[in-house]
Amino acid sequence: MKEVLGLFLFLSAGASTALAQTYPVVEVFKSPTCGCCSKWVEHLRSNGFKVNAHDVSDVNAERKRLGMPEQYSSCHTASVGGYVVEGHVPAADIQRLLKGKAKAIGISVPSMPPGSPGMESPQPVSYETLLVQKDGSHRVYARH
Questions:
Q1: pTM greater than 0.90
Q2: Higher pLDDT, 85 or 11
Q3: 52 has pLDDT over 80
Q4: DSSP per residue, 113-140
Q5: Alpha-carbon distances of 138 from 60, 65, 103, 133, rounded to whole Å
Q6: 107 with 83: CB under 8 angstroms?
Q7: Is residue 109 part of a domain?
Q8: What is the total count of domains within the chain?
Q9: pLDDT band at 17 (very low <50, low <70, confident <90, very high)
């Protein structure tokens, strides 16, 4: 029985490592003083992403450099797998985006909705993740 349990634990650990290696590294650009951004980074890490968090003095400049239109802005911006991820986007939406290989700039949760990852709240609100098209338009990608 010990051998079976040991093999199970070994295989489980290997599966977790393999899962983490299937996602490209997420580069996050955030203010050094923003606590909710750090919570979002932890949300990504707990869902199998490797994250490099960069404290920057001008998140807007990073967003512009990455090509995300200003109307989709939030408190932090990120890049992963050739996409821009703006705001408190759930890890599952990023995983879906990477798997589906949409032709888009990226995805965004504009503003900072209570209840989104990193913005946990006893009074969450419904919010949408938007798929931002290359022409700057968008469509609803997910509802939460």
A1: no
A2: 85
A3: yes
A4: -TTSTT---SS----EEEEE-TTS-EEE
A5: 20, 19, 12, 5
A6: yes
A7: yes
A8: 1
A9: very low
In-domain check, residue 68: yes
Distance (Å, rounded) from C-alpha 20 to C-alpha 116? Answer: 22
Asked, for residue 9, whether it belongs to a domain, the answer is: no
Q: What pLDDT shows up at residue 65? A: 97
Domain membership of residue 100 as a residue range: 24-143
DSSP 23-79: SPPEEEEE-TT-HHHHHHHHHHHHTT--EEEEE-S-HHHHHHHHT--GGG--S-EEE
Per-residue pLDDT for 5 more than 90? no
Which two tokens mark 141?
């990608």
- Among all chains, which residue has been given the structure tokens 């404290």? 55
**Six-digit token string for 43:** 């949300």
Euclidean distance between CA atoms 86 and 80, whole angstroms: 11
Sign of the dihedral through C-alpha 55, 144, 109, 134: positive
